[in-house]
Specification:
- By secondary structure, this protein is α+β, with helices and mostly antiparallel strands.
- 29% of the residues lie in helices and 26% in strands.
- It has 2 domains: 217 residues, FAD/NAD(P)-binding domain (3-Layer(bba) Sandwich); 108 residues.
- The chain is built from 9 helices and 20 strands.
- The strands form 4 sheets. Strands 1, 2, 8, 9, 10, 11 and 19 form a 7-stranded mixed sheet that branches. A 7-stranded mixed sheet has the order 6-5-14-15-16-13-17.
- Helix 1 links the parallel strand 1 and strand 2.
- The radius of gyration is 21 Å and the shape is globular.
- Belongs to the flavin-dependent halogenase family. Bacterial tryptophan halogenase subfamily.
- This is Dehydrogenase (Flavoprotein).
- GO terms for molecular function: FAD binding.
- InterPro entries: FAD-bd, FAD/NAD-bd_sf, Flavin-dep_Halogenase_NPB.
Length: 381
């Protein structure tokens, strides 16, 4: 008999919530996480939509969470628009590592087994899954869940392929702010768009969303070039931390993919380049062979969307419930139909998202010839 009914690889919000739902249903669940939740994680803003989802999960926010009173947006013109109200109450700014840890702990309280600091380095598929764990031996499970984020590490080892729709990255830094206002700020520029928001006591997270090739060719992972692309509202929010002569994106040259800028004056830490690519994990034959152990992907591993949709953590928690329901069906022997229905629902969600993304970006028409904007408003990405 396998050691576990389900092995979930990745303890981000989607993975931990999936594990929690399955453990609550009485299944033997293993939750694996490569980290120990000890490194900063990008994505500190939770929309109000998370509130009912967390209530359903029985999870409370970490005590360090602070209210988010909405988004002030400069998109499509110099005038701002604000999104402040929701029937679900206020949103939240959280320490993402602490938030992810709290979700994983809730899964453990429900009965899941959590192993942190453990990498899954290989899988073997037969009637059950065998997972090889770096320095930790092997475990067996009846169903495997890929919750490894945009990397989709498990799915890409199997029969799946990532289909990207763009090349989006977030060039991210943390900037001191004595008393950061309780709202997020979004502002468009020719090279992409800026997002800034409180990120714990005394600092803001500030990121430029642009394309990977533009970040590389225009050296936007260096502090000076990054600051040089600041929009006026974002620069005003940063104050002295933004004091640098403007450098237009058209005049910058060369940098390596994923390069990290050195820390400059006003930055708490050096810049990080984080993937924010939109993509769908395509499975050509989901559940085709009932004699072989089934698997599914959840969260960003299954479908990753542009941060401008504001669907981040709330979307991950919603996908976890659908994934858990599918896994329960798989464990009941309904492999082919359950997998096909799950993938079909994801395909419909992806189609809706792509139309939504086109509408978002079409609302900004000031720089139609700029590569970033042209790619998002033309018929093909």
């Amino acid at each position: 008999m396998p050691d576990f009914d389900v092995a979930v690889v990745g303890a981000g919000p989607a993975g931990s919530a999936t594990a929690l739902w399955l453990a609550r249903a009485g299944r033997r669940v293993l939750l694996l996480e490569r980290s120990r939740f000890d490194h900063p994680r990008v994505g500190e803003s939770l929309s109000p939509d998370v509130n009912p989802l967390l209530r359903d999960l029985g999870v409370t926010l970490p005590g360090t969470a602070t209210p988010s009173y909405g988004i002030r947006s400069y998109w499509g013109g110099a005038a701002s628009s604000s999104h402040l109200f929701s029937p679900h109450g206020t949103g939240w700014y959280v320490d993402r590592a602490a938030f992810d840890r709290s979700l994983a702990s809730a899964a453990v309280e429900a009965g899941a087994v959590l192993r942190t600091g453990v990498a899954c380095v290989g899988v073997t598929r037969a009637a059950a899954w065998e997972l090889r764990l770096a320095g930790r031996g092997r475990v067996r499970a009846r169903v495997l869940v890929d919750a490894t984020g945009r990397a989709a590490r498990i799915g890409c080892r199997l029969d799946a392929e990532r289909i990207p729709f763009d090349r989006l990255v977030a060039v991210t830094g943390f900037v001191p702010a004595a008393d950061p206002p309780g709202y997020g700020l979004v502002e468009t520029v020719p090279a992409g768009w800026w997002y800034s928001a409180p990120a714990g006591p005394g600092q803001l997270v500030v990121m430029l969303l642009t394309d990977a090739d533009l970040a590389r060719s225009h050296r936007l992972s260096t502090v000076e070039r990054w600051r040089g692309e600041l929009g006026p509202e974002t620069a005003a929010r940063l104050g002295p931390a933004a004091a640098v002569s403007a450098v237009g994106v058209a005049g910058a040259q060369g940098a390596a993919d994923g390069a990290v800028g050195t820390a400059g004056a006003g930055l708490v830490s050096g810049l990080r380049v984080v993937s924010a690519v939109s993509q769908r994990l395509h499975r050509p034959h989901p559940g085709a062979d009932p004699r072989r152990a089934p698997w599914i992907a959840v969260g960003d591993a299954a479908l990753a969307v542009d941060p401008i949709t504001g669907n981040g953590v709330a979307g991950a928690l919603r996908s976890a419930k659908a994934a858990a329901d599918t896994v329960l069906a798989l464990l009941s022997g309904d492999a082919s139909e359950a997998s096909a229905a799950y993938e079909a629902a994801l395909d419909r969600e992806c189609t809706t998202y792509l139309h939504q993304r086109l509408e978002y970006y079409a609302a900004e028409d000031r720089w139609p010839a700029a590569p970033f904007w042209h790619r998002r408003t033309s018929p093909t990405p």
